[in-house]
Amino acid sequence: MSEGEGSGPPEGAVVLDVSEVSKSFPGVHALRGVSLRLGAGRVHALVGENGAGKSTLIKVMTGVYRPDGGTVRLADSEVGFADPIEAQRAGISTIYQEINLVPLMSVARNLFLGREPRRFGVVDVRTMNRDAVTVLRDYGLDVDASVVARPLRTLGLGAQQMVAIARAIQIDARVVVMDEPTSSLERREVITLFEVIRRLRARGIAVLYVSHRLDELYTICDDVTVMRDGSVVHTGKLAELDRLKLVSLMLGRDMAQVKRNGVTAFAADHGEIAEKPVLRAEDLQVRHRVHGVSLDIRPGEVVGLGGLLGSGRSETAKAIAGGMKRDGGTVEVAGSRLRRATAGEAVRAGVVLLPEDRKAEGIIPSLSVRQNIALAALPRLSRIGLVSRRKQDEIVAYFMDRLRIKAAGPEQKVSELSGGNQQKVLLARWLCLHPKVLLLDEPTRGIDVGAKAEVQKLIDELAGDGLGVLLISSELEELIEGSDRVVVLREGTVVSELDGDQLDEAHLMHALASESVAAEAENSEAGDDR
Length: 530
Ligand code: ADP
Ligand code: MG
Hints:
- With about 525 residues, the chain is α/β, with parallel strands linked by helices.
- The chain has 20 helices and 22 strands.
- About 35% of the residues lie in helices and about 25% in strands.
- It has a 6-stranded mixed sheet with strand order 6-9-10-3-11-12, with helices on both faces.
- Helix 19 (about 505-515) packs antiparallel against helix 20 (about 515-525).
- The longest helix has 16 residues, at about 185-200.
- About 45% of the residues are buried.
């Protein structure tokens, strides 16, 4: 079925041509005139920060969404797929992050689903299994007839993904789209995947590769398209774009305009920072996400946690706060070790986390401001006595005032508040517990400018009161101006720590883009970034 090696279209010939595609959702212009051309036998990186429009573009290409405007042409004929199955029949296969196969069916059946070899009308299991072994071995999987007969779910995640890829390619694919294919793979499996991708390339297939991992992009991709806020901001050969430029395009910061030691009126100034850390995390491990992160936070200090998407920032915070299982490492609060690694234990020790998605993980929209604030404190208050409504009212009033929460009153439904005020309500909920350490994951995302400045000021004040703060932010400016020092993560490890006169956008961007700590240091020594 598949074309023999070398018999495909000439290398570089345009296989898929997306032109001026637009797509809006209520209130969001997700794609604004996006063009993208995929060449035969070329691996094309699609990069951009969260919300840039990558997934929407893929969905338009693969028939999940219809574009509002623009065209998609596949090898010279305009296409408008009614659904993903039609797109797949035309030769566009998508491998999603989540593997959409049937876990209970056999490996071989999954591989050939819908195209099983038949004899006298029934599936010829023996032939199917034999073919499956041949195909999967060809993709570097060590399987035999008994393995392919087993349910798919008995394979490891990487092997399952390889089955998904092999399946996609069997269907005469001309274009293969991979949306973050390596996010759950082991290192060894990534190497196998890259061999497969090279084989696809040799067969003249166009591959679209979405990933945030710079090392991977530079290993496997030929071309690159960078998206930001629904538009393409750059497209060209990847080898002609250095890492720093790539990162600056993704983040929308021009290196030439980047501030060096740009101290502004808002720069963090928390006064006294104590010597002894209030929080000490050592060698934290979370499977696939965090590989040996260590960090300290001292009372009165705001430690920024920087990194590109997927670098393990949120997972690090969750591993500290017990919101995610730790596979290794230790957390100490004020000198005593958290042994159980549960959220309850962390809260009792004084560590609280404000998660990234306040709608999904925090705010209870149907309850009042008062109820939302009192939620975490209730068990605590009732341990020291009974929770008198009066006591509760006092505490709520105090924090509404202290955090300058704008609401008609404590009984207003929290869902009626602005995003910024909802965020403050969440903050109040945790501050009722008098924490020692505050972990804030994107505390100002999605709130308006005025409220943002308010929340930033508040963080500053809380540190001034002696709290240790961990601040995760994708905004370079917020991170630099709000932190006393910034720990930079890349692919689950600490690559750099910036403080003093290294704490500026130029150094931070170098760290985000760095290949290795050594290379980064060299670059900043040379000061060749101006
Ligand atoms: P990326 O994959 O680059 O992170 P997406 O394509 O998922 O970006 O999202 C682009 C923008 O479109 C975001 O602002 C997102 O919130 C919005 N968006 C995506 N899909 C939908 C949808 N089905 N309904 C409403 N808004 C959406
Ligand atoms: Mg996406």
